[in-house]
Amino acid sequence: MGIGFEIFLIFIICILAMLLLMAIFKIKRATQLIQDQQALKEEETTRDDSLMTSSKNTDNSKLLQDAFIDNNPIAIQIVNQNGYTVHFNQAFEDLFALPPKSENNIFEDDRLLKHHFHDLLFQVKRGDTVYFPEFSYNAHDKNPKFDNKVIWIQMIAFSIPDKNQQPDIYIFMYQNVTAKRMAIDALRQSESLARAVIENTATGISVRSNTGQLLLYNEIWRKIWEVDKDSLEEELAPKENLILECWDNAYEDHIRKIREVYTTGGEYFGPEINTGSKGINKQNPRIVTQQYKSICNDEGEVERVVILTSDITERKQAEEERLKLQAQLSHSQKMESIGRLAGGVSHDFNNMLSVIIGYSDIALLNTEKNSPAYNYITEINKAAVKSANLTRQLLAFARKQAFNPIVLDLNQAVNGMKKMLSRLLGEHIKFTFLPGKSEILIHFDPSQLDQILANLCVNARDAILEKGVIVIETSTIVIEETFTQFNPDFKAGEYALLTVSDNGCGMSAETLEHIFEPFFTTKEIGKGTGLGLATVYGIIRQNHGAIEVYSELNKGSSFKIYLPRYMKTNETNVDTGHTQLMNKGTETLLLVEDEQVLLNMTKDMLSLYGYEVICANSAKEAINISNSWSGPIHLLITDVIMPEMNGKQLSDQILKSRKDTKCLYMSGYTDNIIEQYHLNDNNKFFLQKPFNIEDLANLVRKILDNEV
To which H or E segment does residue 268 belong? Predict the structure, then answer.
């Protein structure tokens, strides 16, 4: 019983020990909780104090912020995340003259959208900082009471994110940069003018810093020193003795004076220098002279040195070789003398040739063709004609020919120029001559005709970048009085038509307006004088002719020259007066022409013959008329080359719904356009511009009566 009691006692002691330990643990935990609560309470107290201080600071910051915005000389606009204005300063209102309306969304503002800032505004909306290009603004557009004055504005826009880093508000800042822009434009113009003067002078010009660094140069300078463009990167690096390193001791005084210009300023004319003496231009040494001129700042310190380099190599070589000098100096004078001599001799020489040719022609008319004398006289006539051609070519070469028109066959004259033109055009261009079927006589100076052909062919050649085709065609045409009412450059009568066409780059409408103006050229500097087409125009007008140009970008050009025909005395002159109107009709015609003047002229022509003419200025308008016109349309008359849709495409679309309608194409291009645009389908015909009223009326009547 003693042992069992002891065991029981030990069990009771263990339980009491465990309870004691649990109590101690709970006491410690409770103590820790109390301490944590006290620390938390202290932290909350500190935080409340901080928040109160922060709130005060926030209020002060907002006041400072508002003051900064409202008194800022830069125009500021603040918009919310939806794009609506919530605040703007006085500078904003002063700049735009009008406060923003609360209902206007900045991301839909027409002031910005009209400048195509859609993408930039989208970038701002997604949170990017965006610098906008300068844009124009005129308050007069918004309210007529304001002055009609355009200002230029520079704008920057950015967002301020919320706690989730999403755009909360947007800041738009504007600045008036009109004055800066005007100054920049003026400076740019000034710099462009200076650059143009520098580049087009015959003197080499370079500008260096006071340390010898190359800052500016022109092409003449580069050629004189034979500096490779790729190596100029090194040349543009600062080099103390760059301008001095090539000179040896023989130029000691020269070097000293150059240094003075770079250090103390002034001007110095250097001696003649052989650039090959120290390996420069070793293959092609040049003799040059240089003038040094310093440019100083307000304090008198040298900032720049301008160096004018004159290449006198040719002059020096000519001085050493007197005979060569004489030839060079008198070259232009000799050419002028040759021209005057050729012009003086040609008059008498051509008179003699005219006698030979004239009498040989008479002799041929009175000689039997089977007689030996006929062949002899024929050879004499051919030799005289060849001699006249040689004289003409000599005068054309010297460009000193007098205005001396003679009766000549246009086909033969062009044929005589074929070889020279082929050599002039080169192998990459196919040259074709399509002469008229009958004899075409004109009263014209042969040398002037050669000049016209040479200028037009060279112009066509330069318009062809790679391989191409140049076509010369001849034909005849009658201009009626009706046509001259709408074309004052023409007089009624018979004309020889000379056409020069190419498939080159073509010309824009703006270029076409100026091509005959003296000194107007689209060619690079040095590749054209701008006088070629002006000369052609002058010659044609001098001979009572006219010229028309048809051109389309990337397709080619066609020059049509109208020269009065020469009528033989034994032929009856063509009556160019009004003819009795024949071949009248009452059918309905749809006339399509994008040139309003030609549209009106053609309508008047057809109306005189009784036709009902419906006019359309474009292919789209013609299609709408065709779809809405309830009655029949007997004939579609359309230009071939038009914007948006050509005549072939237009006729194909209209004839889908009007199977019985016939089609007549018109074009100022030559007849080969039929093949190019596949215009030779059934019920489709072609008329070349310009046309007279009789030709138009006859063809329309024949088409309607199924006679063609």
Answer: strand 267-269
